[in-house]
Amino acid sequence: MRKVLVPLLLVLALLAAGCGQDASTSGGAAPNGQAASFPVTIDTPAGKVELASQPQRIVSMSPTATEMLFAIGAGSQVVAVDSNSNYPKEAPKTDLSAYQPNLEAIAGYKPDLVVYSDDPGELAAGLGKLAIPALQQPAATRLDDTYAQLDQLGRATGHVAEAGKLTATMKAEIEKIASADRPERPLTYYHELDKNLYTATSKTFIGQLYDQLGMKNIADAADKEGGGYPQLSAEYVVKADPDLIFLADTKCCGQSAGTVAARDGWDQITAVRSGGVVELDDDVASRWGPRVVDFLKVIAAKVQTLEGVGS
Amino acid sequence: MTVTERRPGHDLPVAPGQRPARLRAGPLLAAGAVLAGAALLAVLVGPVRLPPLAVLAELAGRLPLVHTTSGLSAPEAAILWQLRLPRVVLGGLVGAMLAMAGAAYQGVFRNPLADPYLLGAAAGAGLGATLAIAYGPDTSAWPVDLLPVAAFAGAVAGVVAAYALGRSGGARTTTTLILSGVAVAAFLTAIQTYVQQRESETLREVYGWILGRLTTAGWREVALMAPYALVSAVVILLHRRLLDVLAVGDDEASSLGLRAARVRLVVVVAATLATAAAVAVSGLIGFVGIVVPHTVRLLVGTSHRLLAPLSLVAGAAFLILADLAARTVTAPAELPIGVVTAFVGAPFFALVLRTTRRVP
């Protein structure tokens, strides 16, 4: 029964996203009546953002925001995305750098809305001077932040219904994954951010996703200050002997099950001995957009196979 | 043995404050004992608690003709032999090379603030590492990682460029050389920053490398570094008397029949090899090359005859202890080793500046 539901929901989600896109490509008219009524006022930590009419020239400086915009059907209103926004493929990727945003380059796209995650310089202040509305969507610290940001983008772009649908679908899928049978003993895991053994604890956004599956993070003991991203000693990883190792450094740093197995001493780890090393997509594992569901599915599938072996 | 014993030909008067040659073994033995103690402590203590007696038994078991059963489990033995021990050995090698290179640079340039990274070695290594990370091929299947090789090549290239630039003006003064080192370092750092900016995906790995890589060190890195360490150490130790002559100034050294420029070149090449090998396997670890030689000077004086070998031994001990702190203070999390060495090194550096203010 469950196995049928997953693709079904996925199709529904895709349909919802597709519909939204169609609606907005046809001249940017409000797709469904009052949901897209403008002007709208959006409360942000940086103050209120007023949007007089539906934005048609959106610049996204955040890969996660880009994924969200396209997922809620606002993709056709996006004119430029930053150099790291590599998903979805149809996103209009540019040279704009999110690390060192260049105000002039952004203004050159004549945006009527800029979405960004971090403000390393005076991005917000500069956009304010140019009277360009700007939404900050900082890195989510929990799933509710993701839902709130989707809702905010929905209201800002005139896709409230699609955003609501997407959120509901995500919640349902995550609920389903989380309610699956769990092993009697919680599986332990290590989530690798780079090969110098930087990792994320269960307090972080990504760690809370693993929590959904009832898994136990080996790095929690190493994070007394609560920063969330400690660097572990190799000795400790070997001693902690995680059941699963998740590599979020496959693209950035070329790590794989093979390179992990070749590390000194790591052949002692259960995950390495029993095929429990999972190669993740760095991007999916570091963003907080709609693809967290894909991420959870990969993890859940791996957990299922381990249970199968165990029983 | 009594002090009254005299042998023919050995009764030359000894100036006050100057020690007879055979007493030089004293400080060296003391430093060696400190190093042995530091190494032993670093092997016994770590983020994972291994029973000390079992560790000693396990180590003794590897000696010829000794048969012991340590009782360490397979993972514990792997932690000891494949993770902890190579890290201690590599920490010792890196510390020894950085401290010795620092002492050599300070001697050659007659500048108490000279450190192993003075002539663009750090900037060159940084650029080499960044290029390897950003544009290098996937080397996971290669026997040797590209990163240390690129860092090594970059460090050597940086110093060669600084040296060529410093000599091209005709003048071969140490000041010209140091200034060209500054120029080369700034230039290379600019390129590195540009590449990082273009390839922002690589930022994380580049910073991981810059912050120090002893965390993931293994025997492979030890094997990579050992040959260069050995050659550099031998060359510098053989030149330690000439460094003393050089200390009086180029003109005076020439009048004593020493080709100052040539000695300087040989020592700089050896110190650069040592630095490059250290940087290649461990990233940039600051202040060791300043702190250790200056401490040794405070304790035993400025003669390179003692300074070079003592810096080597003390540098090894210092970095082994610094790394011990790096991996135990916040265990099982790691502190970047550069933080530890700079935390001790920066205040100390200020102190050295105060006490040596009279030196131009």
How is the secondary structure organized here?
The complex is a heterodimer of chains A (311) and B (360).
Chain A: H1 2-25, E1 40-44, E2 47-51, E3 58-60, H2 63-71, E4 78-81, H3 103-107, E5 113-116, H4 123-129, E6 134-136, H5 143-157, H6 160-178, E7 188-192, H7 205-212, E8 216-217, H8 234-240, E9 244-247, H9 250-253, H10 257-262, H11 270-273, E10 277-279, H12 282-286, H13 292-310
Parallel strand pairs in A: 3-4, 3-5, 5-6, 7-8, 7-9, 9-10
Antiparallel strand pairs in A: 1-2
Helix pairs in contact in A: 1-6, 5-6, 6-13
Chain B: H1 25-44, H2 52-61, H3 74-108, H4 121-135, H5 146-168, H6 174-198, H7 203-210, H8 219-238, H9 240-246, H10 250-255, H11 260-282, H12 288-300, H13 304-328, H14 337-355
Helix pairs in contact in B: 1-13, 3-8, 3-11, 3-12, 3-13, 4-5, 4-6, 4-7, 4-11, 5-6, 5-11, 8-11, 9-13, 12-13, 12-14, 13-14
Q: What do these coordinates show?
A:
The complex is a heterodimer of chains A (311) and B (360). Chain A has 13 helices and ten strands. Chain A has helices spanning 2-25, 63-71, 103-107, 123-129, 143-157, 160-178, 205-212, 234-240, 250-253, 257-262, 270-273, 282-286, 292-310; strands at 40-44, 47-51, 58-60, 78-81, 113-116, 134-136, 188-192, 216-217, 244-247, 277-279. In chain A, the strands form three sheets. In chain A, strands 4-3-5-6 form a four-stranded parallel β-sheet, sandwiched between helices. In chain A, strands 8-7-9-10 form a four-stranded parallel β-sheet. In chain A, α5 (143-157) runs antiparallel to α6 (160-178). Chain A is elongated. Chain A starts with a helix and ends with a helix. Chain B has helices spanning 25-44, 52-61, 74-108, 121-135, 146-168, 174-198, 203-210, 219-238, 240-246, 250-255, 260-282, 288-300, 304-328, 337-355. By secondary structure, chain B is mostly helical. Chain B is globular, with a radius of gyration of 22 Å.
